[in-house]
Structures are given as C-alpha cells and as structure tokens.
Amino acid sequence: MSEEKRKAKRKLKPATLVTQAGRTPFDHFGFVNPPIYRGSTVLFPTVAALEALRQPYTYGTKGTPTTRALEQGWSEIAGAADTVLTPSGLAAIGLALLTATHAGAHALIVDSAYQPTRIFCDGLLARFGVEVDYYDPLIGGGIAAMMKPETTAVLVESPGSQSMEVQDIPAIAAAAHAHGACVIADNTWATPLFFPPHERGCDLAVEAGTKYLAGHADLLMGLVSANSEWAKRLRATFNAFSMGSSPDDAALALRGLRTMALRLREQERAGLDIAQWLEDRPEVSRVLHPGLATHPGHALWKRDFTGASGVFSVILKETSKKAVAAFVDGLELFGIGFSWGGYESLVLPFDCSSYRTATRWTPEGPALRFSIGLEDVADLKSDLEAGLARLNGS
Question: In this structure, which long-range contacts are made by residues 112-116, counting pairs with CB atoms below 8 Å and at least 24 apart in sequence?
Fold first, then answer.
C-alpha cells in the first residue's frame, strides 16, 4: 500500500476502518474476503528465486495471504509498523516480553496484570535469567525511581485485570523511554479502537484476539503490534519461535474484525448502563468501571481513552460465600467463565489478594467481574435482580 493510501485510511472513522483494513479484493480476483490459504510448502520458480528469498511467501510458518491480511489490517487499526499473530493472548504476552528482554535484563511488571502474565514472568522469564519486579499501577512517572541499569522492559495493563486500576501510560512511557526501556501494553480491554497504544507511547502492544476481535467465543488468538523502532526485532523473535496462528483462525478473526467497532460500542453502552444500575443497588459497595465518574481513574480514562469495553468489576457489601454462590449459580444469562469479550455475558468471582506483591487487595466484600455481551439490557437486569434476591435470601 502506498503512503498516500495509508494516510487516507488513517483519517477514516473506526467503524469504517475496520471494514477496510487489510482488504485487497483485487489481489484475490475481486472476492471481498481473502481465501483461506492452507499450506506449509511454498514453491520457488527458480534456484535464483530460492536463494534470494524475495518472494512474498516462502514457507507456511512465515505466513500466508490469509494471515498477512489480518496482520496488515491490525497494523492499520493500531497505528503500528508491523503485527504478528500468535496462538493465544498469553503467547503474545510471552513473545513481547522475550522480544524486549535478555539474560541479565530487568523487567518491571504492573502489579494488577493478568495473572498468567505473572506466572510467565515468575517462571519462564526468571528461568531465562530475567529479573522481575512488580510496581503499583498508580505509580505514574514515579516509575523512574524503580529503573535499574539493566531495565529493558516495562509492562502496562490499563485498566488492570479484575481490579480495574487506570494507569498513566504516557507518563510511564516517558520515564521508560528516558531510560531506554521498551514499553509493552496489554491492550485487550480497550483494543486499539478505544486506546491507540502506539500514539500513547507504547512500543509493543499485545491483544488477546480471543476476546473482542474474535467476538464469538470460538477462537484463540493473540496479536503483537510494534512501532517502527521495534518492528524488526519483534518479527525476528516471532520467526525464531514460528508460533504463528493458523489461516483458518485468521479468517475467523478477519470476520470478527469487520463488526468489532459495532460490537464494542454496543457492549460499551450496555456495560455502562448495567454498571450504573448496579451502583445504585443496596447490595453493592462499589462498581469498578473506569467510565463511571465515581471511579478513581476516571479522569485518566477520559483523557487517554475514546471508549470503554463491556468489562468491569463489582465489590459487593460484606456477605457470605454461600450467598454469593446463590447469586451467581442461579444466573441464566451470565455464564461463569474466565474469558470475556464474546457475544455472551459472563461473570467471574475473583480474589487477587494472594498474588499481589507491590500492592494489597483488601476489598470490603466479595468481588465479581462482569463481561457484558450482546443480550438485551432489560433481560440482563432482570436476571441480575433475581440473583440479588437470592443473595438477600441466603
């Protein structure tokens, strides 16, 4: 694509961009969507071509026209120089961290990160000789005091997994870059449509495409996008692992991409509606949703984000475990599950106190994370109202 066309695409509104990004119909005989190219072996016409390795595709692990369409489309949406696909969100986090660290390096990880990220850092990354420290998600530019000569990576996740703290990512990025460190963002909650990671100072941005990109709870995928400074190093690390996603999964993700803006806006609307409704319930102590004016990080969210997804948490007033189970187990429209971002609503009781190290998690009551799907809001409220009646009766 010419630079002129790239500039024109960057001016498109998100709802339009997701329908256009990564699409080259006339490369595929005019078909609107790229075909699914399945294959390992790619033939070369001559020995000279084999030795030059200059043709667009050389082997299945290096990508196909199907996976390339998703990579290019995501790069356009994220404002990135390049994107690679991985088999899961956690694989994407691991790939990004391995791109930005080496034996003897030091990494700073936000204390509110997705728990499997911590497991990866405390296990495999530590085994590879990388020192890891966790920091308070509200530290902002104060993270400069935690930098060491060996610090090469700072991982942010805003809002925080489950506990929903909003980070001052531009301030953290400025401090990290002054030290020469790479800033890695887990941007799954917002997606690039609601938080443009590279515009905000992030060098590598991770997305669990399993969630809002796929949108239908039928796909595992991760994506890592990179700015121009880190694109070559990311691609080299990716090629060393050959951990790409399948062309069939890429085709499903491309299909999800085309409706992602519409789904996100609807889930934002429904999520805020239900969050506000729960905030007024007598059984609820606090609602942790950055889009609510009552959230401590609301001002930062309003400054840096263009929207909110349908994921938020609730702290109930003190009650028994039996009462919480009665509330959750009887819900008919909310499944109990670890993921989120699909068309279906989910709820997950959680307690992150056991694995926080830089901060303490001491809520005044039981905590629940909600992912609001695409059901009618009135039906979801009726289901929750019946659940809260069960909680009160237990």
Answer: 112/137, 112/157, 112/159, 112/160, 112/161, 112/162, 112/163, 112/165, 112/352, 112/356, 112/359, 113/155, 113/157, 113/160, 113/161, 113/186, 114/90, 114/157, 114/161, 114/186, 115/161, 115/352, 115/355, 116/90
User: What residues in the chain have per-residue pLDDT under 50?
Assistant: none
Task: Give the per-residue pLDDT at 140.
Answer: 98
Residue 125 burial (CB count, 10 A):
22
> What one-character-per-residue DSSP string does 76-120 give?
HHHT-SEEEEESSHHHHHHHHHHHH--TT-EEEEETTS-HHHHHH
**Is residue 231 a contact partner of residue 246, using CB atoms and an 8 Å limit?**
no
pLDDT of residue 32: 87
pLDDT at residue 31, as a whole number: 86
Instruction: Please tell me the predicted confidence (pLDDT) of residue 30.
Output: 87
- Strands 284-288 and 222-226, bridge-based pairing: unpaired
What's the token pair of residue 248? Answer: 């069939």
Give the CB-side neighbour count of residue 55, counting CA atoms within 13 A.
15
Phi-psi region of 219 (alpha: psi -120 to 50; beta: other; left: phi over 0): beta
Integer Cα distance of 189 and 290 in angstroms: 11
Q: Angle CA(182)–CA(17)–CA(250) in degrees, nearest 5?
A: 70
